[in-house]
Request: fold
Amino acid sequence: MNNNTKIATFRDYSSIGVTTVYFLSFIILGVVTGTHGPSIPQYSNMTDVSIESVSIVFSSISAGHLLGSYVASRLYDKFRGHITIAIALILMSICLYSSALVTSLYMLVLFTFGIGLAKSAINVGCNTLLVWVQSKAVAPYMNALHFFFGFGAFLGPLIVTYSLSKRDNISWGFLLLGIITFAVAIWCFYLKSPTAPEKEMNSHVENSSPYFAFLLITIIFLYVGTEVSFGGWIYTYAEQMGIADTQTKGYLTSSFWGSLTVTRLIMMPLVSRVRPQIILIGSFLFGLLSLSIIIYFNSIAGAFTGTIGLGVGMASIFPTIVVLAQNRLSITGRFMGNLSIGASLGAMLIPWIVGQYIVNNPPSFLWLSLLTLLVALIILSLALIREKRINN
Reply:
């Protein structure tokens, strides 16, 4: 690799330090996300409310994520990015541990709202800064970043399950996670922040349509809503259907995030060689097939097979959407913030809708997941066809 490539400039920001902080931040982001679903029964017991009522935490997290995405997108374009990420990590550590101690639903909603704020700032920041640093060579790095999110999400349910089995509560696991998060925040404070590169106004950027950006945001809305809903509710689905014991339910949730993680690891050397359009279409089709397996077989074996398959199918969608956008749009903190807002709305609305029906009709959550992925695939196809016609 010659010294003129964009990757070489990564050394300006302390290559090892910067990449380690981004990846550690996304591990933490994944762990926290992975704990939401398995913590629902515990939250219900702590606050003495029904599962249907406590499902509002999904909405409070996403509402915080929505507001945080709007604010963070402006901050990263104007201020030092690493300071913003560090503050978000500190907020995450405080709210996470506090959420494991409260007995009031209102306080639980407040702290989970804070978790959502922190998650959005970390998400927007790491995605944006990584694109600024790596530019056209970002594809494998972006997949690696989201691989670490999946790795963290795989660990999340295991942490909850272990904490419950040893202490009969989730506070011990959340305390340990909070300490680690705070330590990463302190490290982040001492790293030099990258700055936005000068825009290269090529024909793709000049001719790119806001309509195309809107379609990408809509796809992210549907994708993230499905991912968060499935990762959060598959534990409760297995419980309501009576197909697994407590330990197995935790493993079922982890199998989703685990397969998602392994697939991202496998895809890292491939994403720079395969067109993003091919990866996206194949991912959605595989996800639809996997959900169909869970619905058709209605057993623990079918649930594990379909859950692992869905993790494989959904693994590369988000990072590949970012790569696809970079080929046609100018990536700024504001654009990544808008993408995150779409993700927040999906993560807020779709799991909440599922929560209203899953107790009385558990399979409804699978049918809704199937529908959202199908609509996302249709929108993607329309967007790609339209862009091809414009380019021609």
Q: What stands out?
A: The CA atoms of residues 113 and 363 lie 28 Å apart.
